[in-house]
Amino acid sequence: MQVSAQKVVYIHYTLTGENGEVIDSSEGQEPLAYIHGHGNIIPGLENALSGKTAGEKIQVTIPPEQAYGDRDEDLIQSVPIEAFHGVDEILPGMQFHTETPDGVQLVTVVNINGNEVILDGNHPMSGLTLNFDVEVTDVRDATEEELNHGHVHGPGGHHH
Ligand code: ZN
């Protein structure tokens, strides 16, 4: 069975950055399961997997515009430290979820400048060219329930 829209695809993957450093990997875990054609994974990877079958391996280099987008310097903002009441200590690299008009956004603490905390709302992988080594381990039809929910049920997917 080929990878195409509405199929559940199981992949093992290793993601490396521009200098070959491993950013993420499914090694030692269940394969990642996603529904093809639903935007569950980045567009560049979804495109590269189209038409593949179980057992195929691919290597693909994905530019930022096909991955997590370019960095947007407007997403760097300064917030008074009082906004973090309840947090014992603010340190660079800490991540928080904030409510915005566009929904929940993940922000990363870049720096603390006196009573101001500098936050970066860019996706941590924005601006990066990503290299994927991927093996397709299985392809199957999605169930009607999975299509309604927009995600995979069972191992490698959501459990409910
Ligand atoms: Zn569900």
Q: What is the compact description of this entry?
A:
The chain is mainly beta. The protein has two helices and nine strands. A hairpin with a 5-residue loop joins strand 1 and strand 2.
Structural overview:
The chain has 160 residues and is mainly β. It has 2 domains: 7-68 and 126-149, Chitinase A, domain 3 (Roll); 73-120, Thrombin, subunit H (Beta Barrel), CATH 2.40.10.330. The protein has 2 helices and 9 strands, in the order βββαββββββα. Strands 1, 2, 3, 4 and 9 form a 5-stranded antiparallel sheet that branches. It has a 4-stranded antiparallel sheet with strand order 5-8-7-6, with no helix packed on it. Strand 1 (7-16) and strand 2 (22-25) form a beta hairpin. The protein is elongated, with a radius of gyration of 19 Å. The model has no long low-confidence stretch (mean pLDDT 93). The chain binds zinc ion. The site of zinc ion (ZN) has 5 residues, from loops. Residues 149, 151, 153, 158, 160 line the site of zinc ion.
